[in-house]
Every structure is written in structure tokens, then in C-alpha cells.
Amino acid sequence: MQQSNLRTLRIVRMVLWALVVVVAIGASALYFLRPPERPLGLNGQSFAMTSLDGEQFTEADLRGTPSLLFFGFTHCPDVCPTTLGDTAYWRDRLDLSQDDLRVIFVTVDPQRDTQEQLEGYLAGWDGSVIGLRGTEEQTEDIKSAFGVFSERVGDGDEYTVNHTASVFMIDDDGSFEGTIAYQEDTETALAKIERLVEG
To answer: Does residue 39 belong to any structural domain of this protein?
Structure first.
């Protein structure tokens, strides 16, 4: 009777170990056969905008250099000029060139922000800022890719646009690394950017 129990116990143990091996193999297969990661770290949606030099700019172009990316519009009275000023100050404080850290401005107001308008606006701040614009549909695509909200408020040509004010941090692999809140504490923002650039 005791021998029978020992035999049963051995069989149960062998079955359990076999199950452990099967689970381990399955987990490894899922890891190695998983689809490749998309460049964006938010929801993986693709997008295509036009840069101020007339070239197409897609999610693939986020690779290569760490970037600070934010959404706004040239008629913005407060958030956008403040953020542009902040990005210039952060790069200056950390002694970073545009080759170390890109700043990318995406307009959420393609109706008024023509290429000429956007070019003139950004040149007044920092000539190295990359400006992106697109059609209404393309703008919705990139907003969706980053989970950005914007809505037009008011009628006529004097309308304003409410929009997400966070700065998105993108690493040199093109992956989302977090955000910097509007008017976040300067030292906190600088520490985040240092980590982003250092990888």
C-alpha cells in the first residue's frame, strides 16, 4: 500500500514538472514570437505629417534622437509660448544642442497655421524647432496616436483652441518615455530630460 502511494506521488510530481516545462516553453515562445514593437509608446498608431522643409514626417522619424514633442497653435496666448520658452531654457540649462535633443511642435490648428505662418512663428523662438502640420485628417491621426485632446472654441477667425498641454518625451528608439506637465517644477523637468538623453 505504501509502495503504491509512493508510485502515485512520483507520477503526480512528474506530471507537475512536465506542466512547468510546457508553461515555460509556451511563455518563451510568446516572448520571442511577439510582434515587433511600434515606435510610439502610446498606442502604436501610425501618422504622417509635413515638416516645414516640405518633407513627410512619420512615426519612424521619431527614431534617432531623443525628442520633446508637444501640440499647440500659433495663435495660442499662453500655453504654447510658455512651453516654447521652457524647452529653450531646458536645453540651455543642460547645454544640449538640437543634435542631443530635438523639440517638435505639432499644430492642432491646420486651418490657420499655414506653412508660412508656422515657419514665422517658430523662427521667432528657436530656429531649430521642428514644426509639423497636416490636413485635418492627418492632424486627427497624430492626435489619436498620442492620445491628445483639442477642440475649437468660438466662431469666426478669432477662435481659440483648447488642447493637451503636456510635453511628450520620446527616446532615441522612438518610444514614449513619459510627459512633462505644463509649468512643471523646473528641476523635476530637467531631471526627466537628463534621464531621457542619457538613455
So the answer is: no
Which residue, among 88, 103, 97, 96, has the nearest Cα to 186 in the 3D structure?
A: 88
**Is 57 part of a structural domain of the chain?**
yes
Alpha carbons 109 and 151: distance in angstroms, whole number:
9
The Cα–Cα gap between 88 and 86 comes to: 5
Q: What is the DSSP letter of 177?
A: E
**Domains in the chain: how many in total?**
2
Can you say which residues are annotated as belonging to the binding site for Cu cation?
76, 80, 163
Rounded distance between C-alpha atoms, residue 44 and residue 36, angstroms: 11
Give domain status of residue 43, yes or no.
no
Task: Specify if 40 maps to a domain.
Answer: no
> Helix, strand, or coil here: 101?
coil
Q: Please state, in angstroms and rounded to a whole number, the distance separating the CA atoms of residues 69 and 120.
A: 19
d(C-alpha 172, C-alpha 180), whole Å: 17
pLDDT value at 71 more than 90: yes
- Counting beta carbons within 10 angstroms of the beta carbon of residue 48, is it exposed (0 to 12), middle (13 to 18) or buried (19 or more)? middle
The binding site consists of 76, 80, 163
Residue 37 has pLDDT above 50, yes or no: no
Q: Give pTM, 2 decimals.
A: 0.78
Cell numbers at residue 182, please?
505644463
Residue 53 CB partners (closer than 8 Å, separation 6+): none
Task: Let me know whether 11 and 61 are in one domain.
Answer: no
